[in-house]
Amino acid sequence: MDQLNDWATNLAMAADPSEADLALDIVDAYIEGGASREELFTRTDTSIAGGFGPGSAIALLPLVLRGITAAGKWILTLVSADATGNVVGVVKDLLDIGKDVTPKEKLDQLPDTSPYTALKRVIDTVGLELRTAGIEANEADLITFRVLNSLLEDPQGTATFIEQSGPNP
User: Fold this and answer.
1) What are the DSSP calls for 70-137, one per residue?
2) How buried is 47 (Cβ within 10 angstroms: 0-12 exposed, 13-18 middle, 19+ buried)?
3) Which residue in 71, 62, 65 sits closest to 121, CA to CA?
4) Which of 36-40, 112-116, 134-138, 159-163 has the lowest mean pLDDT?
5) Which residues contact 141 (CB under 8 A, 6 or more apart)?
6) In angstroms, what CA-CA distances link 29 with 39, 131, 148, 156, 165?
7) Mean predicted confidence (pLDDT) in 89-113
8) Which one, of 30, 21, 28, 16, lies nearest residue 58 by Cα?
């Protein structure tokens, strides 16, 4: 359980540090599934992802978890022992890109071979989850790259979460 707690906290710090204190509770509810998972995505008409004020906020971490679950098979490819070293370097490069080239442009330049195909699928899947919730595209991409970096830093915790989270509703 400590491993999942550390994994959840690190993931929350990558997605939205303000959610770190609740990270384990959010991950536990997500893994439990059913009504507990559904409650994580309850919104009011005025809810916006990352918003502030009563009834206006929706947590980013559940959206990230849903994206991770949806991209599970590709993430498992990335965290395999064979792929992790190359992909970690690429993700760090994408996070360190200057203003001349956006991370998405650099990502598009990668070959369509394994593990880069899996990397592109993960980024597209998690990013789409965030953009669909109302996160601006550039912010969604930045969050996605930080989350991906966090996933790759703890391959065992990531694989454990994917195994325990079950299907994405």
Assistant:
1) HTHHHHHHHTSHHHHHHHHHHHHHHHT--TTS-HHHHHHTS-SSTTHHHHHHHHHHHHHHHHHTT--H
2) middle
3) 71
4) 112-116
5) 102, 103, 104, 123, 127
6) 9, 23, 21, 20, 10
7) 64
8) 16
Strand partners, 49: 58
C-alpha to C-alpha distance for 129 and 131, rounded to whole angstroms: 6
pLDDT interval class at 100 (50, 70, 90): low
- Structure tokens belonging to residue 43: 């919104």
- What is the pTM (predicted TM-score) of this model? 0.81
Written as six digits, the tokens of 62 are 């559940």
| Token pair listed for 37 | 């998972």
